[in-house]
Amino acid sequence: MNRILRATAALGVGALVVTLSACVPESDPGTIQGAPSAAADDLKCGLGTGEQAAGEPIKVAAVATASGGVDFSSSPNSAKAYFDCVNDNGGINGRPIEYEFGDDALDPTKTAQLAAGYASDESVVALVGDATFVGCDVANVEYKKAGLYSITGVGVPQACFESSNIAPVNAGPRTSALAVLQYFERQGQADTFFAVGLNTRGNGDWAADGIEKYTAEAGIDLVGNVLSDPAESNYLPLVSQIKQAGPTSLVIVDPAPITASILAAAEQQDAKGDIQWACTASCYDAQFGEQIGDYWEGFVSNSELALVTADSKDANQWRAVMDEYADADAPRDTFSQAGFLAAKIFVDTLLPLDADTLDRETVSEAVLGVKGYESDLLCAPWYYGEADEHHANHATRTAGIEAGAYVELEGCQDVTDPDMAGILEREQSEGLLNK
Amino acid sequence: MNLLPFVVAGLVIGSVYALSGVGVLVLYRTTGVLNFAHGAVGGMAALLVWQMVELRMQPPVAIALGVAAGAAIALLFGLVAGPFLARVDQLRKAIATLGLALALLGLMLFVWNDKARTIRLESSRISFDVAGARVNVTQLVCLGLALLVVVGTLLALRYTSTGTSMRALASDRELAAVVGTNVRLVENTAWAISGAVAGVSGILLADQTRLEPAFLTFLIIPELAAVVIGRFVSLWLTLVGGLAVGVGQSLVSAWPTVSAFSTAVPFVVATIVILVAARRRVVTVRVVRT
């Protein structure tokens, strides 16, 4: 045993010496490079009084997938950061917001339990900044019974956009994929198109269906619409399929780690060619450009909200609030913006109300009544409204990688989805875009 | 369709399965522990390498430390759990490592979020064409290393004193202890070697496939298939098994109609081998009877 201990100690000391001597100097860290620095006014959240709210707390909750392989906690975490900022600035007319979120660990049974728990707790007035990857359908059943409404930060599967009591702030994978396709169409780079996605029900197939319908309508030659297994280890077949089809442009509708692996396989085969490669907003993330390397200069991504480097009122406030109230290493991404925006919509909705009358019933009524909500993070006004589907965010921006970082290629553009006719019609007939 | 790129990719992944399988096999033969955490240890090593490179460490140093970390994790588990595991049956030993696998997986998911990560070995940047297939240096390293490790392990088992002790333990643990073999030392060596092998294969797999905790942890399945094909005894057959599983997976995925079943290839191959092996035993029994 002594020999082992001695060997381990020697190894440890050796490792330490090597570690200390092997580092190359680090470049300036900074949370988001290329973003304007914060101003003092950015931290005037809500009433902006600068005084701690001390009244009776208002209970708000969220359900998010934070573990189990997918981590969407950046949405509720930024919602919490904003609520903390509001509480430091007079709260909701003197009453602080007490916020908590439950992790469903990528298990729909757990989502249903959490949703039922919040639904039965009468003191929970609303759900804000949710981001569950699996359970919108089961959660909606509970919320509906209890008359509880969710201003969801991030919705991914179809069910999150087709629920009566859930309204996401983000645009979702289908809209994001169509946005990429229509960007290339406007650039004259969509003569032939190829789509890659994940074979997951109510998610990958939903996006693929949108691509198929739109290309058929617009007369674009869809040369490939491939859904791959989530456990796939070898992307060579996919890359050779792409190479053979030789499309003018292509979109990958996968989570960022899988997109990065597909790109790595394509780089190994030197398959970039003349194809315009792109992905949905899932890989719009400051780290991404650096991870995929120089080979992918010019790679295109959709962004469902303002770019993280944008210089505008709400975008600046989001960064300032994150720097002040969230962990330094909390992701600064679209999901974080979405959670922040959900929280801001909620606070702006409650502030005009009489703080003493706030309970589930009055809050639900106010949330349902949100319409024409404007923010520079969004492209078009956001609304709730009484309906069986909620998909207010259907206008997005496009970014491209330049020197390892995303820069804006095109500003706000409305996304056309053949299945959204009902939503667009209701926007007009119910006047949802105006305050 | 030109199938050569698929064969090349299959051989490369297969050789890393085989490399991993050799690590599993050496540990199993020496300690009787079938290590389900082999993939998780590799995943941990790969993520540590990524983290160290991200913290601006020189890649070669980071890789060396990653492999050392793999060895250290396995050795630590061997030191702590080894004495207890020695006294329980093989099924419980295997289940204990499943616990380690899940603990490591949980730790990895806790420490690293689900953002995109890639490990790019410098050797992957140098590539050349072989009859229409692109091959890079990392892929050659994978193939060469698998062969080298099989031959090296065979030689070490035969000609070194530790190797002799390992073989002694493999045939009879109690007897080996009685004749004066330092059982604990030999077992710990096996844990460390197996951990280092797991680290090397984890880093290579992360470069060749995906750098994701759950994905790398569950690559233990094709790796075990290779060991099953080697019938838990033969290093050469483990190498053949790994290559067969890798090439099989890659070829199946070449055709869109069957590509959805490529993840099932390890199970199918392992099942066939078990069935055939079982059948042959029945035949021998009959021969003995007549």
What does this structure look like?
The complex is a heterodimer of chains A (435) and B (290). Chain A is α/β, with parallel strands linked by helices and 435 residues long. Chain A folds into two domains: 40-171 and 307-393, 3-Layer(aba) Sandwich (Rossmann fold), CATH 3.40.50; 173-303, Rossmann fold, CATH 3.40.50.2300. Chain A has helices spanning 2-22, 74-87, 108-120, 136-146, 172-186, 204-218, 236-245, 256-268, 288-292, 313-325, 334-350, 360-368, 421-429, and strands at 58-64, 97-103, 124-128, 150-152, 166-168, 192-198, 221-228, 249-253, 276-279, 300-303, 395-402, 405-414. In chain A, helix 2 (74-87) packs parallel to helix 11 (334-350). Chain A is globular. With 290 residues, chain B is mainly α. Chain B has a single domain (4-289), classed as ABC transporter involved in vitamin B12 uptake, BtuC (Orthogonal Bundle), CATH 1.10.3470. A two-stranded antiparallel ribbon of chain B has the order 1-2. In chain B, a hairpin with a 2-residue loop joins strand 1 (127-130) and strand 2 (133-136). In chain B, helix 5 (137-159) packs across helix 6. Chains A and B meet through helix 1, helix 7, helix 8 and helix 9 of A and helix 1, helix 3, helix 8 and helix 9 of B.
Summed up, what is this model?
Chain B: This is Branched-chain amino acid ABC transporter permease. By secondary structure, chain A is of the alpha/beta class. Chain A contains 13 helices and twelve strands.
CATH topology of chain B: ABC transporter involved in vitamin B12 uptake, BtuC
Catalogue the unreliable spans of chain B. Answer: 282-290
- The number of domains of chain A is 2
What is the arithmetic mean of pLDDT of chain A? 89
Q: How big is the Rg of chain B?
A: 19 Å
The largest chain-to-chain contact, stated as pair and per-chain residue counts, equals: A-B, 48 and 51 residues
Rough shape of chain B?
Answer: globular
Number of helices of chain A: 13
Task: Tell me the structural class of chain A.
Answer: alpha/beta
* SSE pattern of chain B, N- to C-terminal: HHHHEEHHHHHHHH
Helix coverage percent of chain B: over 70%
* Termini Cα gap of chain B: 52 Å
CATH superfamily of the largest domain in chain A: Response regulator
CATH topology of the largest domain in chain A: Rossmann fold
Q: What is the N-to-C order of secondary-structure elements of chain A (H for helix, E for strand)?
A: HEHEHEHEEHEHEHEHEHEHHHEEH
Q: Compute the average pLDDT of chain B.
A: 86
% residues in beta strands of chain A: 15-25%
Oligomer: heterodimer
Number of DSSP helical runs of chain B: 12
Give me the Rg of chain A, rounded.
23 Å
